[in-house]
Predict the 3D structure of the following.
Amino acid sequence: MTKTALITGASRGLGLALARSLASDGWRLILTARGADALEPVADRLGAVALAGDVADPAHRDRLVRAVRDHGGLDLLVNNASGLGAVPLPPLAGYPLDTLEDLFRTNVLAPLALVQAFLPGLRERRGAVVNISSDAAVEAYEGWGGYGSTKAALEQLSNVLAVEEPRVAVWWVDPGEMHTAMLADAVGAEDAAAAPGPETVVPTLRRLIEERPASGRVSHP
């Protein structure tokens, strides 16, 4: 039976790298990201369904739910879409609270809302959830308090979800530094270019999906 995955933030970076890998193995893909101009060519190349929009928008999440229903259900939810927050990265003493509130909507509430929407089907199909986290969730990096606090919240939600939903595999994955646009926004293009490409993380994700180890936190490498 063909399996179906929904990947958020799939137009670039780790989301795109994982989508390419799953497509090569025959997965049916539903891909979402904010920008249609970047997402639709990716989906065309991979034979995937593209639904551009903001996962923090409840109306867009409803569209994703309908798309999954139209394709027969979901086996894998990958919550990869993420915001960085205020740039340049500010200390917490001066962090704009309205920006932090928006960041929590994107990085915490949206992933949870998608999990809630798809849980009945994931239980039935013994599916899996991958929540992409960060070492900023567990380490005290100057300037990363806003972003890191959202990832810490996402990790604890994942931790509790793993206990509450034994029929669903739940992994929260720290991919380490990757050469992505987000990292470049945070540390500058030159420093970001020294980081490994997101494709180097894909084997770790594929191992989880294929071998289905116990739910938990996973660090790469």
Summary: The domain at 4-219 is CATH 3.40.50.720 (Rossmann fold). The longest helix spans residues 97-125. The chain has one domain: 4-219.
